[in-house]
Design brief:
Blueprint (H helix, E strand, L loop, with lengths): L1 H20 L22 E7 L6 E7 L6 E6 L6 E8 L4 E7 L7 E7 L7 E8 L5 E8 L5
Antiparallel strand pairs: 1-2, 1-8, 2-3, 3-4, 4-5, 5-6, 6-7, 7-8
Length: 147
């Protein structure tokens, strides 16, 4: 009986060890929340998808010249007008971005959260169109390297 118990324990620990070894490692520099991310982690190329709106939008974010945040552009379809973006991660860890078609008035507002386990490479939330107050869920996903 003692040999059987030892053999069972060895088998159980062997299975557990194999299962633990197969877990996907999390990078040491992977933030658990957006609040842990440096602003520079937002710099680079992204794609944005909006429910109810056609096409994928190309987003480019970089350093904001006036404050600790980002400034960039969004192009919803090739050849379309490029809108300006400016924003940051707020105190609650939400990505907050203002969008402007003309560079003066806000035409859209983005408010989103970092997806758990995405290491800051994916945000989901709601985009509000300032013209008609309609809202659309969005997914913002990194497509290029940060700068």
């Amino acid at each position: 009986m003692k040999r059987f118990s030892t053999a069972v324990l060895i088998a159980v620990f062997g299975v557990l060890g194999t299962a633990c070894a197969q877990q996907i490692p999390v990078a040491a520099d992977c933030p658990a929340s957006a609040q842990e991310m440096p602003t520079t982690a937002l710099y680079g190329q992204w794609e944005a998808r909006f429910d109810g709106l056609p096409a994928v939008a190309a987003v480019r974010l970089g350093k904001h010249p006036d404050y600790e945040g980002v400034r960039g552009t969004i192009t919803r379809t090739p050849g379309a007008t490029v809108a300006q973006l400016a924003g940051d991660i707020d105190d609650e860890g939400q990505l907050a971005i203002d969008e402007s078609q003309d560079g003066h008035r806000i035409s859209g507002v983005w408010l989103g959260r970092m997806e758990p386990g995405s290491c800051g490479k994916e945000f989901t939330g709601t985009w509000r169109n300032a013209a008609d107050d309609s809202t659309h869920p969005f997914v913002l996903r990194r497509t290029g390297q940060s700068q």
